[in-house]
Amino acid sequence: MKDFLIIGCGRFGRSVADALVKMDKYVAIMDIDVKLVQELSDKVSYSVQGNSTNPDNLASLGIENFDAIVIGIGNNVEASIMTIVNLKDLGAKRIVVKALNNIHAKILESVGADRVIFPERDMGIRIAHNLIATNLLDYIELSPDYSIVEVIALPEWEEKSLAELNFRLTYNANVVAIKSGDEIKLSLSSDDIIKKNDVLVVISHKMYLNKL
């Protein structure tokens, strides 16, 4: 079972905490606002009111024991930087942090953030792709060039094998999983048949996404 710490329980931090709790993960939270902590205290595994810019407050949590730490205090640039520095000194394994802009992101990465997230920008990109491709259910950016997407099988794909469809040649994409109802198939073969309403998980270069 993986353990997570969420620092900053605004809208972003709370949504991450809620999602992890639903996945039955151990979730600890810290926020400077005692009211926010009290609101979430009965939903998470552990909650504490504290200022993450104070290393003593973090040290008491056993930072080295968490698999990942999410910092959701992006609106306070100085606090997010100081928190990362403190976490690195305390042996944090993985730090994910919310950023306000590209300059803020570069600073966060330079002081030790393992991953920087732009919630509003990333959501905007997802919505835009969903509007352009109506069969696209979800979109995640893997790198500046590649993305992983979930697409509903098009009518012309139905009852055809992966070999017949030849996604790599036709769409310059790789199918990594097929979701049929509640079942997910990860070990695919060229003989697998696409059925109506199947959802394909595909990795593709961004310039070819509009072909799917």
TrEMBL record:
Domain of life: Bacteria
Molecular function terms from GO: monoatomic cation transmembrane transporter activity
Domain RCK N-terminal residues, every copy: 1-117
Domain RCK C-terminal: from-to ranges: 134-212
InterPro entries linked to this entry: NAD(P)-bd_dom_sf, RCK_C, RCK_C_sf, RCK_N, Trk_Ktr_HKT_K-transport
Gene Ontology annotations of biological process type: potassium ion transport
PANTHER family: KTR SYSTEM POTASSIUM UPTAKE PROTEIN C, POTASSIUM CHANNEL PROTEIN 2-RELATED-RELATED
Protein name stated in the entry: Trk system potassium uptake protein TrkA
Organism name: Serpentinicella alkaliphila
Top-level taxonomy: Bacteria, Bacillati, Bacillota, Clostridia, Peptostreptococcales
